[in-house]
Amino acid sequence: MEQLLALARALADPRAGNASHPYVMLVMGIVLATAANFRGASGIARWFRWNFEELDDFLETGQTPPSRATVRRALESLDEGFLDKALLGQGCPEGFVAMDGKAVRAACRPGSDAHDVSAFHAGSKAAVAVVRVSGKGHEKEGFLELARRVGRPGVVFSMDAGGLSRELCKAVKETGADWMVAVKGNAALLETEAWALFEDDPDRRPRRPSFETLCKGHGRLETRTHRTADARRINLLDPWPGLACVGLVERRREILGGRRKGHVSREMAMHAMSFDTDAKGYAGLARGHWSVESSLHHVLDATLGEDSCRLLGKAGAALAKVRRVALSLLRRLDGFPNVAAASDFAACSPAKFWRAAL
Fold first, then answer.
1. What span, in angstroms and rounded, lies between the C-alpha atoms of 138 and 193?
2. Can you give 114-150 as a three-state secondary structure string?
3. What secondary structure letter does DSSP report for 210?
């Protein structure tokens, strides 16, 4: 919170000289209101009305609470660099960073650009960067920008099959980072050659030890068997930058109850990686990619109501970043079982939340 306040105080006020609300109060209030689960410009303006007197305890306030129109104008004028610095902090920590896109459903209309691509650090459970692109078909553009912005030695980026491109793999390696991407029909030659590495032919190449995990829950038992192979033997006319290893996971799901009790299904998934790892290491990485869904996208929708946001344009893009900043603040609080409980605490008393987050 102290770093965020220092960044807000360093912001240049883009408004006219006769503005009646202190800009720092507007910016910090928008973040606090979002953390308290007040949604959109109308909800944030309502939060200002309800907590205006209490805000005076720790922020310089004006004579009256800002209106909905004032909040919207503040969001539209909010400097993107400020929000990017608030998310990234002192730089992306080393470790696993999952990149994935998410549509803001309430704001999805023909020609709208309400599709956000996030870089999520699995270790700290925090979004370190976000880019708004014009639809799911443009996610690769967002992946490229995030990789160049966040990439550094010690970082491993993971992406689903939609992010598989030589340009992206090359951009990641140029930053000193590594990549792991799901392989499907979008890279047919690579997929064919990778499958050949796992054929049961001991005369062709030695088999590496596999690693198996069990997961029981939601009325089913899932067994995952992981294997890896050296991909440097793959010979393509147009090689993939940095390709070093491929991993294969087989998932076997058995239904444990109900009318479908005993039903078994199987599926296979493959990943290409720019670094070598064993089956156990690959198992953690393959599972870790989905933390962006469970720990970021689900929380943004279920707790902070992102899917109900109808704001478009600069205001909508700014509020998407503000939500991720607020989520990082909520996760830093101690003593709460989940983000929803921390958000309730922020809603009860902005002053207590402010002191707890310092």
1. 28
2. CEEEEEEECCCCEEEEEEEECCHHHHHHHHHHHHHHH
3. P
Cβ–Cβ under 8 Å, residues 25 and 61: yes
pLDDT tens, 230-253? 998 888 878 899 999 999 999 999
- Taking the C-alpha atoms of residue 163 and residue 139, their distance in angstroms, rounded to an integer, is 7
- In the chain, the amino acid numbered 69 is A
Could you tell me if residue 86 is left (phi over 0), alpha (psi between -120 and 50 degrees) or otherwise beta? alpha
Residue span of the structural domain in which 246 resides: 182-280
Query: pLDDT per residue over 75-105, tens digit each?
Result: 999 988 898 999 887 678 899 999 999 888 7
Strand order in the sheet with 245-255: 126-133, 115-121, 95-103, 155-159, 178-183, 264-273, 245-255, 220-230, 211-217
Counting the structural domains of the chain, the total is 2
CA-CA-CA-CA dihedral for 299, 305, 307, 311, to nearest 10: -130
Cα separation, 160 vs 294, whole angstroms:
15
- The domain boundary residue, chosen from 280, 298, 327: 280
- Is-above-0.85 flag for pTM? yes
